[in-house]
Amino acid sequence: TQAPVNVTVTGAAGQIGYALLFRIASGQLLGQNTPVKLRLLEIPQAVKAAEGTALELEDGAFPLLAGVDIFDDAKQAFEGVNVALLVGARPRTKGMERGDLLEANGGIFKPQGEAINAGAADDVKVLVVGNPANTNALIAQSHAPDVPAERFTAMTRLDHNRALAQLAKKLGVTVSDIKKMTIWGNHSATQYPDIFHAEAAGRNAAEAVNDQQWIENEFIPRVAKRGAEIIEARGASSAASAANAAIDHIYDWVNGTPEGDWVSMGVPSDGSYGVPEGLISSFPVTCKDGKYEIVQGLEIDEFSRGRIDASVRELSEERDAVKQLGLV
Ligand code: NAI
């Protein structure tokens, strides 16, 4: 075993937090040889609830859990952080304009970016889950100039996993038979789940499906609108599956992706695939030795090009909007 890794979770008293913390404590975030110290950040009104969760974490008697500290101050919460999971965000409430939403989230992600800049460990890795995740990640990143820009990522792994599950179901194979799934663009309804480079039990997935109608009118909207489907069925938004995806995102970033496969992560664009540099957009990535790389050289046909461009356009508009608000 090694020294404990500091994991900061914001929004720790929320529903994703409740599903996430126990899995981190059990060793699923980093692996079974890595002790973790949890640092929970909440707003003052929710600190008591976070303390309740900490009591339950204690009752889990997790061998790898080296401690739990609770904060209502970002500067303290991110002191020495190695892995930052930014889950807490301001949800869109009825009648709220996009500008108001971005501004409210700027009020959260700007100080958190500054706190990460001031106190994080040199190897810090940041995952933004709170929506609008890609643009919140951009805001935090722009206030952390001393942290390498590529350490700021946004979660599209839930979309990736949803796409794996839907495709496996369609083809009557298991999810582990599917490789090289890709989510492109924004974590929003414009995202593009791409099966043209995916493989299902060794065959090209789009050829195995052989049904463009299904891809366009069933698969893509089903994956992109799955969040709404969950809310409709459950009466609450995705929480355990979102927590699961956050675990997958960090686990793979730290431990690497398997040979012959890749995952989807929202990462700062280096200009690959025509995505303007600096936008935090979802790409296919491989991970190794704690670093990720955007998969290069994929052929993008006209259909995929149109879908990617539409989602990237939305990301550019969000970036312009937060620029105008002085948030980046
Ligand atoms: P929730 O409302 O149950 O919990 C959010 C928590 O964040 C609350 O306890 C709140 O007190 C806390 N919080 C608010 N402002 C904070 C701040 N400045 N610092 C620390 N904590 C703060 O929400 P839930 O269901 O846990 O979802 C959290 C976020 O994750 C939402 O923005 C949601 O839209 C997003 N999400 C993203 C997904 C993705 O795939 N990227 C999937 C599912 C949810």
From TrEMBL:
<feature type="binding site">
    <location>
        <position position="112"/>
    </location>
    <ligand>
        <name>NAD(+)</name>
    </ligand>
</feature>
<comment type="function">
    <text>Catalyzes the reversible oxidation of malate to oxaloacetate.</text>
</comment>
<feature type="binding site">
    <location>
        <position position="131"/>
    </location>
    <ligand>
        <name>substrate</name>
    </ligand>
</feature>
<dbReference type="InterPro" id="IPR022383">
    <property type="entry name" value="Lactate/malate_DH_C"/>
</dbReference>
<feature type="binding site">
    <location>
        <position position="162"/>
    </location>
    <ligand>
        <name>substrate</name>
    </ligand>
</feature>
<feature type="binding site">
    <location>
        <begin position="129"/>
        <end position="131"/>
    </location>
    <ligand>
        <name>NAD(+)</name>
    </ligand>
</feature>
<keyword id="KW-0520">NAD</keyword>
<dbReference type="Pfam" id="PF00056">
    <property type="entry name" value="Ldh_1_N"/>
</dbReference>
<feature type="binding site">
    <location>
        <begin position="11"/>
        <end position="17"/>
    </location>
    <ligand>
        <name>NAD(+)</name>
    </ligand>
</feature>
<feature type="domain" description="Lactate/malate dehydrogenase N-terminal">
    <location>
        <begin position="6"/>
        <end position="146"/>
    </location>
</feature>
<protein>
    <recommendedName>
        <fullName>Malate dehydrogenase</fullName>
        <ecNumber>1.1.1.37</ecNumber>
    </recommendedName>
</protein>
<comment type="similarity">
    <text>Belongs to the LDH/MDH superfamily. MDH type 2 family.</text>
</comment>
<dbReference type="InterPro" id="IPR001557">
    <property type="entry name" value="L-lactate/malate_DH"/>
</dbReference>
<feature type="binding site">
    <location>
        <position position="105"/>
    </location>
    <ligand>
        <name>NAD(+)</name>
    </ligand>
</feature>
<keyword id="KW-0816">Tricarboxylic acid cycle</keyword>
<dbReference type="InterPro" id="IPR001236">
    <property type="entry name" value="Lactate/malate_DH_N"/>
</dbReference>
<dbReference type="InterPro" id="IPR010945">
    <property type="entry name" value="Malate_DH_type2"/>
</dbReference>
<feature type="domain" description="Lactate/malate dehydrogenase C-terminal">
    <location>
        <begin position="156"/>
        <end position="323"/>
    </location>
</feature>
<feature type="binding site">
    <location>
        <position position="98"/>
    </location>
    <ligand>
        <name>substrate</name>
    </ligand>
</feature>
<feature type="active site" description="Proton acceptor">
    <location>
        <position position="187"/>
    </location>
</feature>
<dbReference type="InterPro" id="IPR015955">
    <property type="entry name" value="Lactate_DH/Glyco_Ohase_4_C"/>
</dbReference>
<dbReference type="GO" id="GO:0030060">
    <property type="term" value="F:L-malate dehydrogenase (NAD+) activity"/>
</dbReference>
<dbReference type="InterPro" id="IPR001252">
    <property type="entry name" value="Malate_DH_AS"/>
</dbReference>
<dbReference type="InterPro" id="IPR036291">
    <property type="entry name" value="NAD(P)-bd_dom_sf"/>
</dbReference>
<feature type="binding site">
    <location>
        <position position="92"/>
    </location>
    <ligand>
        <name>substrate</name>
    </ligand>
</feature>
<keyword id="KW-0560">Oxidoreductase</keyword>
<dbReference type="Pfam" id="PF02866">
    <property type="entry name" value="Ldh_1_C"/>
</dbReference>
